[in-house]
Specification:
This protein is an alpha/beta fold. Helices cover 42% and strands 22% of the residues.
């Protein structure tokens, strides 16, 4: 399963990837807006939006790409490791 995480804290980026690896998921993490974010998202199975730490522009871009690739979109206000684990428990 491929997962794209939008938002969160930069210092947690490797921890997010490690957690996804434990659930046998490939993860891409974008904590900041990139110029070509639209092209880098690809076509994941699940898009996780950490809404408290992400800009509206980034959310809009991610949601548009997720809908285009028919990915599941999960929103979480908390960007903690336990929030990510809870989401992955549900989908992976």
């Amino acid at each position: 399963m491929s997962v794209v995480i939008i938002g969160g804290h930069e210092r947690m980026e490797t921890q997010y990837k490690d957690i996804c690896k434990r659930y046998k998921c490939k993860a891409k993490v974008f904590t900041k807006m990139k110029t070509d974010l639209k092209n880098k998202i690809g076509s994941p199975d699940l898009v996780i939006l950490f809404t408290s730490t992400v800009s509206h522009k980034m959310v809009h871009c991610a949601v548009a790409e997720a809908e285009r690739s028919q990915a599941v979109i999960e929103r979480s206000h908390s960007s903690s490791a336990s929030a990510l684990i809870g989401i992955l428990e549900q989908y992976a």
